[in-house]
Amino acid sequence: MRSVKERRIVRYKNLFDLTDRVVLITGAAGGLGQEMALGLAEYGADIAMADLFPEKIEKTLTGITSLGRKALIYKVDVTDREAVYRMVREVHQDFGKIDVLINSAGVNSRKPAVEYTEDEWDRILDINLKGTFLCTQAVGKIMLAQGRGKVINMGSVSSVLGHPHHGPYAASKGGVALLTKVLAMEWAKSGINVNAIGPAYIQTPLTAEYLAVGDHYQKIASTIPMGRLGEPSDIVGAVVFLASDASNFVTGHLLLVDGGRCAD
Ligand SMILES: NC(=O)c1ccc[n+]([C@@H]2O[C@H](COP(=O)([O-])OP(=O)(O)OC[C@H]3O[C@@H](n4cnc5c(N)ncnc54)[C@H](O)[C@@H]3O)[C@@H](O)[C@H]2O)c1
What is the CA radius of gyration of the chain? Predict the structure, then answer.
């Protein structure tokens, strides 16, 4: 007979295993989308990658298939309800199920509140917030029928902090955080966990232009207690946790991955 300690090791060591789980990622061509796709595939997941510019995903697709996992690419505009439902139907047909949805499509533009045009406001809110809702609604119907699923939204430290020059972005990310809680409540008894990740600045195409200017990098780094910006790889542990059975009793949570930024 095995000791309690040994039995525990046998029981828990596969807690993060994602073998044969099907993960759909939007914004999959992005800096975080591609890194999350590769990380999840290393844990055994098959990946459906959707983006407005899917041609940028080819290299990551090769990386995932070389791990022996299935990966397919889809073109979608997350603000277009019909296109979202079509893409989700295709993913469901191609993979047979959807275990995890990661809403990572997102945009930003930084400027004083008085300078935003209505079109700029609409674009940021439509992609970041409405897009997250539409994708979650479409996949949620499948997950409700399955009686299981995990939704992971990309929030931000801007979900909880009032950074100047982030008006529409912060409004959208605050909305994402609260939408996460609402859906977590609605689906808590249906086997669906809904959580969000809240990164601080991470070096990706989303932030590259801003960080390349003057002392922006140093200025941002100085606001982060750990003294550095994030790397895309810093997100992988959080997303694997929220996608896996390790987080089965976690829902409605915003998991900050921010080098201590919001602990300040
Ligand atoms: N990088 C950071 O510092 C940071 C910090 C906090 C939160 N986030 C959030 O994480 C997510 C991913 O960020 P990232 O750094 O990978 O950004 P990124 O710019 O590298 O990638 C975003 C992706 O979204 C796609 N996209 C944009 N509009 C779309 C649309 N209408 N339909 C489908 N796809 C669309 C883009 O083509 C791009 O591939 C975003 O939601 C972002 O707000 C990023």
Answer: 18
What are the structure tokens assigned to 101, written together? Answer: 């949805």
Taking only the tens place, the pLDDT of each residue in 81-111 is 999 999 999 999 999 999 999 999 999 999 9
Residue 130 per-residue DSSP state: I
The residue whose CB lies within 8 Å of the most ligand 1 atoms, and thus the one to mutate among 55, 101, 107, is 107
Instruction: Give CA–CA dist 201/259, Å, rounded.
Output: 10
Ligand 1 centroid, distance to 263 Cα (angstroms): 24
**CB 198 within 8 Å of CB 235:** no
Could you tell me the distance, in angstroms and rounded to a whole number, from the CA of residue 80 to the centre of ligand 1?
17
74 noted as active-site residue: no
CATH code for the structural domain at 15-263 = 3.40.50.720
Pairing of strands 149-154, 71-75: unpaired
What is the average pLDDT across 144-158?
98
Q: Is pLDDT above 70 for 10? A: no
Amino acid sitting at position 172 = S
How confident is the model over 152-163, as a mean pLDDT?
98
pTM score: 0.96
Residue 37: predicted pLDDT: 98
- What is the maximal distance between C-alpha atoms in the chain? 70
Q: Which of 169, 201, 210, 217 is catalytic?
A: 169
Within 13 A of 204's CA, how many CA atoms are on the CB side? 26
- Count, residues in the chain: 264
- Residues 222-260 pLDDT 10s: 999 999 999 999 999 999 999 999 999 999 999 999 999
Give the number of the atom of ligand 1 that is nearest the alpha carbon of residue 157: 6
